[in-house]
Amino acid sequence: MSSINYISKIINLKGFCVKKVNDYKNCRKIYGQMELKEHKCPCCGHMTSKVHDYRTQEIKDISAFGYEIYIVIRKRRYVCTHCNKRFTEKIPFLSKYQRMTKRLIYLIIEKLKDVSSYTHTAKEMNVSVSTVIRIFDNVNYTKPELPEVIGIDEFKGNTGGEKYQCIITDIKNKKVIDILPVRYENYLVDYFKPCERKNTKYFVSDMWVPYANIAKTYFKKAVYITDKYHFVRQVTWAFEAVRKEEQKRFIKEKRKLFKRSRSLLLKRYSELNEESRQAVAAMLNASEKLYSAYILKEDFYDIMKSKNKEEAEKEISVWIMAAENSGLDRFIKCAGTMRKWIDSITNAFDCSYTNGFTEGSNNKIKVLKRNAYGFRNFRRFRNRILHIFA
Ligand SMILES: [Zn+2]
Predict the structure, then answer these.
(1) Disulfide-capable partner of 170 in 147, 187, 248, 274 (CB 3.0 to 4.6 Å)?
(2) In angstroms, what is the span from residue 46 Cα to ligand 1's centroid?
(3) Ligand 1 centroid to 40 CA: how many Å?
(4) How far is the CA of 83 from the centre of ligand 1 (A)?
(5) 87: CA distance to ligand 1 center in Å?
(6) pLDDT at 17
(7) What is the pTM of this model?
(8) 292 and 223 in a common domain
(9) For residue 309, is pLDDT > 60?
(10) Cα 369 to Cα 267: distance, rounded to the nearest angstrom
(11) How far, in Å, from the CA of 85 to the mean position of ligand 1?
(12) CA separation (Å) from 363 to 119, 367, 368?
C-alpha cells in the first residue's frame, strides 16, 4: 500500500481524497479534496457537478503520529447550470464556521468531562485556551425533570459574586441534576414552583430553613428527610464545644490527661481498647460536665441504630429531655434544634436515603474548582459541573 493510501485509511475522513502529505517540524499537513460528486442546488434543487472555482482551507484535526495534524482541503464551489447559483460543496466532517474537524470538537468536549482545567485540555489537544472555552460555551444543559428522590445541598463555589451555590441531585440514580446560583428561598421558589413535582416522593436536605420551607410548601406529598450526617453533626459539635471549654479550664498538670482527647472522646466507647478506655475514664473523672456530655453523645449514637421512625421518635424524645436537663448550654441548644426538626429527622429512619452522594459530588466540584483556580462565570461553571456528572 502506498503511503498516501495508508494515510487516507488512517485519517479516515469520509469522502476526502489525500493527494499529498508534507511533514514540518511539529506538524503534518495532509493535502487533498473531496470526491467530485453531484450536488443539489440550494436555490432551485437542480443537480449539478459543474465546478466554478476552488478555495483552499486549512482545518485542524486531532493530533496523531506525534504531530499536530492539518487537513488542507481544496474546497470546490459549484455552479448551478439551471439558475447560476454558486455554492460551496458539502464537507461532512467539518462544522459550519469552524476551522476544526467535528471529531476534534467532540474530543475536546469529551475531555472536559474530567475535572481538569481548560488550560490543561488546551495543551493536551494542541489548541488555545480560548478555543476550548468557545467550544465548551456551546454546550448547554437545560433544566431537568425532578427525580423521585431529590437531594439538595450547598457548596462554596464563589461564583457569580455569590459565596454559596446550590446543588440538586437524584439520590436514587446518583446523578447531579442541576446547580443553582444561590440558595435563597425566593430563588428556590421561582425554581421549583413551575416544575412538575408530583413524581417526587422524597426530599432530602440539611437543616437550612429555606430547604425545609420549600419541601413543606411545594412537596407536600413527599417525605421530607433531614440528612443523618447533618443532625448527628449537631451532637458532635455540641460535644466538641463542651470538651474545648472544659479543657481550657484545667491547670497544666491535668492537661496532660487530655492527650489525644479529641479522637479518643469522639470514638465510640465500644470501639476503644482497654488502654484507651482507661484514658477516657481519667478524662471524664476530671470534669462532671464532660462526663454528662459524653453520656449524651454516646446515647445519641446508640439512637442512630433505631430501626424505624416510631422507635427513633421515642428514643430521641427521651434524649431531648435528658439534654434539656443536663445543665449544658450547648446541649440545651442542640435539644431545641432536635425538637424543632424531629419529624424530618425521624423520617430518616424509615428509609436509607441520605445526602452522601450529594456531599461526594461537592468534593469533586472542589477539585474542579481548585484545578481551574475558580470560576467567575456561573453559567459556564454550572454547565461544566453538569457535563462532568452527565
Ligand atoms: Zn439552481
Answers:
(1) 147
(2) 5
(3) 8
(4) 4
(5) 10
(6) 92
(7) 0.84
(8) no
(9) yes
(10) 33
(11) 5
(12) 21, 7, 9
Q: How close is the Cα of 52 to the center of ligand 1, in Å?
A: 13
Ligand 1 centroid to residue 100 C-alpha, Å: 29
Q: Do the domain assignments include residue 104?
A: no
Provide the domain limits for residue 9: 3-94
- pLDDT value, residue 190: 96
- DSSP calls for 344-374: HHHHTTSS---SHHHHHHHHHHHHHHHHTT-
Neighbouring residues of 156: CB distance < 8 A, sequence distance ≥ 6: 163, 164
Give the distance (Å) from ligand 1 centre to CA of residue 78.
10
Distances (CA, A) of 152 to 59, 141, 168, 190, 231: 45, 18, 5, 15, 15
Q: Tell me how far the alpha carbon of residue 51 lies from the centroid of ligand 1, in angstroms.
A: 13
CA of 95 to the centre of ligand 1 (A): 23
Residue 255 has pLDDT above 80, yes or no: no
238 lies in the same domain as 315: yes
Same domain, 215 and 363: yes
Q: What percent of the chain is predicted at pLDDT more than 70? A: 99
Cell of 376: 467567575
Using the mean position of ligand 1's atoms as its centre, give its distance from the Cα of residue 99 in Å: 27
CA distance 262 to 243: 8
For position 207, which CATH number holds? 3.30.420.10
Asked whether residue 129 is assigned to any structural domain, the reply reads: no
Maximum Cα interatomic distance, the chain, rounded to a whole number of Å: 104
Q: How far away, in angstroms, is 43 Cα from ligand 1 center? A: 5
Q: What is the predicted pLDDT for the residue at 390?
A: 87
Cα 39 to ligand 1 centre (Å): 10
What's the confidence (pLDDT) of residue 2? 67
How many Å lie between the centroid of ligand 1 and the Cα of residue 50?
12
